[in-house]
Amino acid sequence: MACGLVQQTASARIVGGTDVTPSNKFPWIALLQYYGQNMGTGTLINDRVVLSSGTIISSMIVFSQIRVIFGSNEPNSTTESTVRKVFTVTRTKLHPQYSTSNLLNYNIGLLQLAVPVTITDTFMPICLPSRIDTFSNEEALLAGWGARQIAGEPWTKLQEVTIPLYSFDECRLAYPNSTENNICGGVFGPAPNEQHKTSCDGDEGAGLMYPWPNDPSYLTLIGITIQIPGVGCGKTNEPAVFTKLYPFIPWVQRQSSGCYCKA
């Protein structure tokens, strides 16, 4: 099964982001809605399974009211996208150790679509990582509809940004409750505001994407955005923080059927 192929070469450049073009550049990104309200972002990992944060999954308990929307870069647009497709779900699964007492740990969950996605260049899963990596001093891509600042308005178009990633020790200094199952990254204060590149309110669940070393036109999902209310968004010494995906791949595969593509 094909996976992770960007429909245009990933930009080397949410807060500090640019519009995603073309609209199907990241064909695995989904907007998640509950009772018609935008909840955050999910990522297609095979033809039936979408990954997101535990925070989002735990807040959607009525399956019939969940919608998973692909090809919707402008969710508030009145013009119907020719590539937009809406899926319902048959079930969700939250990691059993997820707890609101520490949102940095086990913050992961999944949705199973009611019908499979037909895999094309327009709708394609992202690749899963095949090896553990700290990603310290590397760069990764983030895309979402989050706000430009805390309590700010969300972007009307899907945004993308390239962010630097930091070591576990640096992440632990910012978030003492973080573990080696987290990744931290971004540009934030005390850097000047115009240099900020990070996640913010509304980016919950967005995938952190890492280019294949031998072919950057393919991307691997390495993390899932954890957006703690009132935290981050460029605030001083508050990097974006993510659930590192690799340690949870066995759990994900046990919860869902189907083939997965690894890089």
Automatic annotation (TrEMBL):
It is found in: Secreted. InterPro entries: Peptidase_S1_PA, Peptidase_S1_PA_chymotrypsin, Ser/Thr_Proteases_Immune/Dev, Trypsin_dom. The keyword Metal-binding does not apply. Transmembrane segments: none annotated. The keyword Zinc-finger does not apply. It holds the Pfam family Trypsin. Belongs to the peptidase S1 family. CLIP subfamily. Its main location: secreted. GO terms for molecular function: serine-type endopeptidase activity. Keywords: Disulfide bond, Glycoprotein, Immunity, Innate immunity, Secreted, Signal. GO terms for cellular component: extracellular region. One of its GO terms (biological process) is innate immune response. Gene3D superfamilies: Trypsin-like serine proteases. This is Peptidase S1 domain-containing protein. Residues 14-257 form the Peptidase S1 domain. PROSITE patterns: TRYPSIN_DOM.
